[in-house]
Amino acid sequence: MKTDQSVYIRSTYINPWISLAVILLAPLITVIDVFIVNISTPAIKNYFHSSDAALELVLASYLLGYSVFLITGSRTGDYFGKKKVFIAGLAAFTITSAMCGFATSMEMLIVSRLLQGVAAAFTVPQTITLIQLNFQSPADRDKAYGLYGMALGTGATLGQFLGGYFISSHLITDSWRLIFLVNLPFGIIAMLLAYFFVQESGQNKATRFDVPGIIILTLALSLLIYPIIQGTELGWPAWTVVMLAVAFVLLGIFIAWQYWLGKRQRDPLVPLELFRISSFNTGIVSVLFFFGVNTSYIFIVALYFQNGFHMQPFTAGNYFVMQTIPFLLASLWSIKNAAKYGIRLLQVACILMILSFILQLVFFRGNVATPSDILPCLIIYGSGSGLLMPSLLKVAMWDMPPAKAGAASGVYSTVQQFASALGVSILGGIFLYLARSSGNFYLAYKTALFCMMGYLLIVMVVLNRVKR
Questions:
Q1: Where does the sequence pass through the membrane (predicted)?
Q2: What is the CA radius of gyration of the chain?
Q3: Fewer CB within 10 Å: N-end or C-end of the chain?
Q4: Is 342 left (phi over 0), alpha (psi -120 to 50) or beta?
Q5: Rounded CA separation 335/143 (Å)
Q6: What is the arithmetic mean of pLDDT over 373-401?
Q7: By the 8 A CB rule, do 330 and 386 touch?
Q8: Are 174 and 40 in contact (CB under 8 A)?
């Protein structure tokens, strides 16, 4: 399979670190938009008088659109040039953000969020492949991947803070709309910077699009996520079970179709030969479970702070700023020292996050928690996730040939976003179901924490297979 690596354009020199700062705006902004909704969910629910399932769909629809079209977005960058697609994706993201901000019904908001996720899917994959192309030195590339991981984590916590600020600001009557409208100036600025400071990658017109694969995968993942969300709300009627069964059948058909295309060298959506690389498999499985925990944890703890501890949105958002500081410090330290300490450092990171969950089981009882109860838990979690997140992409790409970097980055990002959607659907669904049925927010939170600890134990076991 050809890539754009052979036609990378160097007609004018642009410092790769300046270019990196610009292209990292895409994952930063798109991840902010995942988490900025979390703090705002009670306000959105009250405005539209919606169900818990609809609330989950506001977040999950964005992640679903994001995950399903990531690989297609990567291929589109190969075909038209990554700079062009990067800017076009930012433009679409800005427009769909406006659609979310002016939504007049819950259904319109969910559809707009889905389209916003699709726009993000055409933007973010260009970032990973441009890192691969811009940084030929393994040491510089590892630092760039680490900064990419930092951007993801920073966006997660910054989103929580901004969500709390805008909801509490009352700058407009329906203050929840600001969480989407704020993307308009940032999107325009990012487009202008990309126009001047991002090098075009060239075009590979030999790239082909696996349209049947896109359709099958879209149906399969949609039929997997939707019944999980609705099932917990409606008590698992028969149609939800049937949809899940159909989803797994479609996933089987998708794998068979990818195998058939690969045998005939017809550019499958997911090249199955990537999974012959052991480090890639380790990275993918680790990402699946880690992001299942991380995204759902931030979703759940935001709800728990506001409903269990009766915090105002701005107060809850401020607590997440205190989680960001150790995250950033740990990320910077991890980027410099991960190679020295190897995979054991990542396992220590998992232990820190599990320790945070154990402390939360102890201190987060009742209807009130003091800063001395909350801050140690958030600081420890932020430190653990900061050590782990920047290195997961490096694990997946350790032994990846440059010619396969584009395809691998697309698969990695797809799994990352789908893991987030699945985590919110499963773990978020468990929390909301127990909170609604029992009226006991601590019971719901405790159950979700135990599930998350199980996820992190799986990550530790999987990472133990890596001999580095």
A1: 20-41, 53-73, 85-104, 110-133, 145-166, 178-197, 209-229, 241-261, 282-304, 316-333, 345-366, 378-397, 418-435, 441-463
A2: 21
A3: C
A4: left
A5: 6
A6: 88
A7: yes
A8: no
Contact 125, 409 (CB under 8 A): yes
Structure tokens at 376: 């140690």
Which burial class, exposed, middle or buried, applies to 159 when counting CB atoms under 10 A from its CB (0-12, 13-18, 19+)? buried
CA dist 203 and 217 (Å) reads 26
User: What CATH superfamily classification does 11-200+269-463 receive?
Assistant: MFS general substrate transporter like domains (1.20.1250.20)
The ranges assigned to domains in the chain are 11-200+269-463, 211-268
DSSP letter, residue 51:
-
Maximum C-alpha span of the chain:
64
With 0-12 / 13-18 / 19 or more C-beta atoms within 10 angstroms meaning exposed / middle / buried, residue 199 is buried
In angstroms, the CA 275 to CA 79 distance is 24
Residue 56: both structure tokens together:
């989950």
Instruction: Report whether pLDDT(6) > 50.
Output: no
Segment 98-101 long-range contacts (CB within 8 Å, at least 24 positions apart) = 98/180, 98/181, 98/184, 100/180, 101/177, 101/178, 101/180, 101/181
The answer to whether 146 and 390 are in contact (CB under 8 A) is: yes
Nearest alpha carbon to residue 378 among 81, 112, 161: 161
Give residue-wise pLDDT tens across range 27-54: 899 888 888 888 888 889 889 998 888 8
Query: How far apart are the C-alpha atoms of 176 and 43, rounded to whole Å?
Result: 7
Tokens standing for 79?
């075909």
DSSP result, 126-176? HHHHHHHHH--SHHHHHHHHHHHHHHHHHHHHHHHHHHHHHHHH-SSSSGG
